[in-house]
Amino acid sequence: MTDDFVPAHPDQPGLDPAVDAGEHGDAILSLRDVSKVYQSGDSEVRAVSGATMAVEQEEFVSLLGPSGSGKTTLISMIGGLLSPTSGQILVGGTDVGALSSRELTRFRAERVGFVFQSANLVPFLTARENLLYVSTLQKRVSRKEAQKRADQLLSELGLADRAKNLPEQLSGGERQRVAIGRALMNDPDLILVDEPTAALDTQLGRQVVELLAREVKQRGKTGIMVTHDLRMVQYTDRVFEILDGHLTHVEQPSALQH
Question: How many domains, in total, are found in the chain?
Fold first, then answer.
């Protein structure tokens, strides 16, 4: 995969994210002036600065920016892995920044599905067991129901015959599909995806992103994909560009194709 990042054309400035957010007043996900500041000695580092955006149900959007732009920090705050320094993050009406540690743990387990760059599967568990492990983090379904859901997801993802394989016995694309199944296991509201194609070649990368887009749409979820790869944004509904911690534009994918 290429590491090149290509920003929007200067003559196609797109829409300001704050203006765009105003057009999505009933969005499932809403960020209002969100910032993340770290202390570095006597100085402050602003990883994210005043981010405002909104994403609706069944939307699959991309967060496009170069390495170090703040995109992973931003989705980590959306998913409750990091706390914002200021601003408000609403997911289905829940103020994520106001949750206690216990409430955040429950929020992540029940309402957010994560797909990480390197799949991050448990190496000593089979594909099926990796999915089932997620169901142990919350007690909403019985073990029998969880097993049925895991088998259904693996089948839908084309992995039924790989259910008993360990991660080391799977290809890169298969591991990412298991990671997608794991993210969907607890029927979350929000799917957060961090550079899913970084370790894949172009063809496998396209297959994985197409699969993610399809799953978000078919299941009525909301999805955000972090990427630096301009070739992958065509599978998303809108593109939020981020640079130096600032959300700069919202584009239609077609406006960024060369």
Answer: 1
**DSSP collapsed to 3 states, 2-66:** CCCCCCCCCCCCCECHHHHHHCCCCCCEEEEEEEEEEEECCEEEEEEEEEEEEECCCCEEEEECC
Tell whether 85 is covered by a domain.
Answer: yes
Domain contains 145 = yes
φ/ψ of 212, rounded to 5, equals -60, -50
Whether residue 184 lies inside any domain: the answer is yes
The whole-angstrom separation of Cα 252 and Cα 234 is 9
The predicted-structure confidence for 189-221, as pLDDT tens digits, reads as follows 999 999 887 777 888 888 888 988 988 999 899
> DSSP readout, 91-106?
ETTEEGGG--HHHHHH
Q: Which domain holds residue 244?
A: 17-254
4 within a domain of the structure (yes/no):
no
Distance from C-alpha of 182 to C-alpha of 68, rounded to nearest angstrom: 27
Q: What is the CATH classification number for the domain harbouring 239?
A: 3.40.50.300
Structure confidence by residue, pLDDT tens digits, 93-129:
999 999 999 999 999 988 999 988 777 899 999 999 9
